[in-house]
Amino acid sequence: MKLVVVTAGLTQPSSSRLLADRLAEAVARRLEETPGTSPEVRVIELRELAVDVANNFVTGFPNARLREALDAVTEADGLIAVTPIFSGSYSGLYKSFFDVIDNTALTGTPVLIGATGGTARHSLALEHAVRPLFTYLRAVVAPTAVYAASEDWGGGHGAFTDGLGERIDRAAEELAGLMAHRAPRREPEEDAVVPFEEQLAALRPPQ
Fold first, then answer.
1. Which letter, b or e, does each residue of 40-59 get, where b requires 16 or more Cβ atoms within 10 Å of its Cβ?
2. Fewest Cβ atoms closer than 10 Å to its Cβ: which of 80, 96, 127, 188?
């Protein structure tokens, strides 16, 4: 069971990476509770691919490193995608990475979305910006989106930020359930190869 984590944090350490790690740990725990399931977790830091993503837009082709990351995302059984919130929406790097992916490549893929920001007032960006992005990509987005404001990490208490751990657990349970019940991936059918002689024979007029 392949679980891929995409995080768009720009600093190191990053609160987006911290949230992504907590979500991944919670999902992996639930997958391990399913008999016969062994999760394989892969983390992709988009800041390390920023130049590669930009070059892809200029050349029209991904280099080997970006291609490998794209393949990991599109072949995942489940995806966790976390972005910092800037100006009330996802980061430009986050959007650019998912713009590179074909808009049918994530069809049916279970996705858990998360975001971080300085204030809880930006939490609705998950619903008006991030969720529609993955709906457009035809992914299956978990009902619970997880937003972490600065006060979540500092132990403060607020009407909108209490219970980060509970929200992580609920979202992780939803994603693990979607992954466990996902229909098997269908491999594309290969076109039959018709020998050239047969193609020529088909073009000859009837005798």
1. ebeebbbbebbebbeebeee
2. 188
